[in-house]
Design a protein that fits this description.
Rossmann fold; 15-stranded antiparallel beta sheet; mainly beta; disordered N terminus; 718 residues; Porin
């Protein structure tokens, strides 16, 4: 037989009665990032909320009302937390509770260690019912509780009639403290309370325990006295750890019998309490089975207690006041907007409570904090796929709760256009000359160049609005298809060249990004050795300085780096076996030193070595006068030696400080890269030219997308 308990609170000298049934909730937290999800290999099974909507789950409708399924899918259910249940006793042998009963319980009615209920009466199964709502086992039998992995500490302070002695409650609170309970469920109350009992609730507060109190079933405008303790002088601090709970039905509406939040609205919330299915005492003659339905604030109360257990299990370093604040802040608003006299803070929402709130941040070992969404890693091709499968780290929400975050979510791979811009004939030339001065201006699609000659010294100025590219503007012996591998990402560059005989000094400055924020500077000197008209070798020594980037790799905010200094040597040779055939080869090697910053996740960067080489075959006058066919093969610039040391947040310590772990990450490109290009250009009419370029970039063994390009270009001068 199913019985609805709606027992009013009545004072009998030193005895208290059940307030009627009352409740609270529990759940779990997810690993989450703004606008991103933790990446999971395809072979790994992924839990989803629907997997947890089992028969056990659906039997207890309150779990759905507090959105517990998402939390369970993320793996949180109150493990490691002890919840003290001060009530009429808990059937410790119940098949849905036996595995979740903590040692150390006590019966202050009978005076023994067996806290199971005795005798027959209306309140015999009350404590067992409450315990099931909190931590009934998930075992495919009957139902399960909000925090189904938590432990129940049974503390019998009331008899089967529902009568509680104040001294028994006081002793139960002491017992809960000594047994390291983190939450106490109090589904009872009275119209008066002794100073001794009030002081015990204050003692629970000072011992960092969340106490959850049923509001009562009198249909009144205010909760029972115990839930109003913070209103009394000397007990104001209890408002941070004491939660009063009112009952709603399956429609999220306050029940007729539930007391309202009223004077306790600032520390009051609501949870399902009407017609709640849970465990009952096995030998209770009022029930035909081990389960039954009860209603009251006593059934709402344990929903909140279970929810508090789930949060304390997930974040054991958080104190009681912090957990209570989270429960309040994340509740679903009901009734009048904001905190109101009926629903108080609103309906318990376990999914919201476990979900990250506010802006997620990255913390560094130095104590600095950065927004997750504003911190990223822009990887150039010279690192290949070395950061694939990068480590996970902890990020933090506004309550300084830690969440696991896959760092692959912050990595972005730069797309480089290869040789598309290197076939460019759309130039216009203006020139003037005297005996001792020559002036020429060359305007191309994205650049302007000016050169002068004075006293056998050539002076040139060039400006490029886009990526610095080496345009084909003739096929002289001074031409090198890949002139500077270290400036492949340069934008908005300006350079000055001063040349005399076979020596050239070049000064160059530009930017890594379109916003002109990451500056790049270079100084270089070139030496040309002409062996004869058909063969030369050019050597170039250069010093490259970058602000906030290294070798075009940009690590921002939490991952930021300091200045990078690169010393590079490039060798270029050209051989003309015939008048129309030219073979060009180049090799470049550089060493880069990157400054690490104390307030960055990157705590150290080793010396980086990089390498580049290429070979090009150019044939002129193949089919027509002044046409050109070329084939090139190059190994793009890649880091061949180097590593980063990351100091990654790795959760919270017991004292709520952030723990860190160091990880050394190689950034050597693990895959062999190559790029092949085939191009042809020819004049098809006066001042008109057509060009075609086929380019294929291949990164062996890498997940980076391969790039195939085909360019057709027609130009005409007017």
């Amino acid at each position: 037989m199913l019985v609805n308990l709606k027992i009013p609170a009545i004072l009998f000298s030193s005895a208290l009665l059940l307030s009627g049934c009352g409740g609270g909730g529990g759940g779990s937290s997810a690993n989450v990032a703004p606008d991103t999800q933790e990446s999971v290999p395809d072979s790994t099974p992924v839990s989803v909320a629907a997997d947890y909507r089992t028969t056990e789950y659906n039997t207890q409708y309150g779990l759905g009302k507090i959105n517990a399924d998402d939390i369970y899918a993320d793996g949180y259910s109150g493990s490691g937390v002890v919840v003290g249940v001060i009530d009429t006793g808990v059937d410790i042998d119940h098949p849905d509770l036996v595995g979740n009963i903590a040692s150390g319980g006590y019966d202050y009615v009978s005076g023994d260690t067996d806290a199971s209920p005795t005798g027959q009466g209306a309140g015999m199964s009350h404590g067992t019912h409450v315990a099931g709502i909190i931590a009934g086992m998930k075992n495919s039998v009957g139902m399960h509780g909000v925090a189904y992995s938590a432990k129940i500490l049974p503390l019998r302070a009331g008899d089967s009639s529902g009568s509680f002695a104040s001294s028994a409650i006081e002793n139960s609170i002491d017992r809960a403290i000594s047994q390291n309970a983190k939450v106490i469920n109090a589904s009872f109350g009275s119209s008066s309370i002794s100073t001794a009992l009030a002081d015990k609730w204050k003692l629970a507060h000072t011992n960092d325990i969340i106490t959850v109190h049923a509001a009562g079933n009198d249909g009144g405008s205010n909760p029972l006295l115990g839930a109003q303790l913070p209103l009394h002088s000397g007990y104001e601090d209890l408002s941070s750890t004491l939660i009063a709970v009112v009952a709603t039905n399956s429609s999220n509406t306050i029940t007729s019998y539930s007391n309202r939040c009223g004077s306790a609205k600032n520390w009051c919330m609501t949870a399902p309490g009407d017609g709640i299915y849970s465990t009952v005492a096995v030998d209770d003659n009022n029930y035909a089975s081990n389960y039954g339905t009860m209603s009251g604030t006593s059934m709402a109360d344990p929903h909140v207690a279970g929810a508090a257990a789930v949060l304390r299990g997930k974040w054991p370093s958080k104190n009681a006041a912090e957990i209570v604040t989270i429960l309040y802040d994340t509740a679903t608003d009901l009734g009048a907007a904001g905190i109101d006299d009926i629903y108080g803070r609103g309906l318990l929402n376990l999914d919201n409570a476990l979900f990250a709130q506010g802006v997620l941040t990255i913390s560094t070992a130095s104590g600095a904090s950065y927004s997750l969404v504003d911190s990223s890693i822009q990887v150039a091709s010279n690192m290949g796929n070395s950061l694939n499968g990068l480590l996970s780290m902890s990020v933090f929400d506004k309550y300084k709760r830690d969440y696991s975050f896959d760092m692959n979510g912050v990595i972005h791979y730069a797309s480089e256009s290869g040789l598309v811009d290197e076939l460019n004939y759309s130039d216009t030339n203006y020139s003037s000359a005297t005996d001792d001065l020559q002036l020429s201006v060359n305007l191309q699609d994205n650049s302007a160049k000016m050169t002068t000659q004075l006293n056998e010294v050539n002076v040139g100025f060039a400006h490029n609005t886009l990526y610095n590219s080496e345009n084909i503007s003739g096929f002289s012996k001074q031409y090198s298809l890949f002139d500077n591998a270290y400036l492949s990402q340069l934008k908005g560059s300006s350079s000055i060249q001063i040349a005399k005989d076979n020596t050239t000094l070049e000064l160059l400055s530009g930017y890594w990004d379109a916003d002109n924020e990451q500056a790049i500077k270079e100084v270089g000197v070139s030496f040309l050795n002409d062996f004869n008209d058909d063969f030369y070798i050019k050597a170039r020594l250069s010093y490259l300085e970058e602000d906030e980037t290294f070798l075009s790799n940009y690590f921002s905010n939490a991952y930021k780096t300091g200045k990078a200094k690169t010393h590079a040597l490039s060798l270029t040779s050209s051989l003309k076996p015939t008048a129309n055939l030219n073979i060009i080869a180049q090799y470049s090697q550089g060493n880069t030193q990157v400054d690490s910053l104390s307030d960055s996740v990157i705590s150290d960067i080793s010396l980086l070595k990089s390498q580049y080489y290429s070979a090009t075959v150019l044939n002129k006058n193949v089919y027509f006068d002044d046409d050109a066919l070329f084939f090139s093969l190059k190994h793009p610039l890649q880091i061949t030696q180097g590593s980063l040391n990351l100091s990654l947040a790795d959760g919270l310590n017991a004292d709520d400080s952030i723990s860190f772990v160091d990880r050394r990450i190689p950034i050597t490109a693990s895959a062999l890269s190559n790029e092949m290009s085939l191009g042809y250009t020819a004049n098809y009419a006066k001042n008109s030219q057509a060009s075609v370029l086929l380019n294929r970039a291949n990164v062996l063994g890498s997940s980076i997308q391969l790039e195939n390009q085909l360019m057709l270009k027609m130009t005409k001068k007017f």
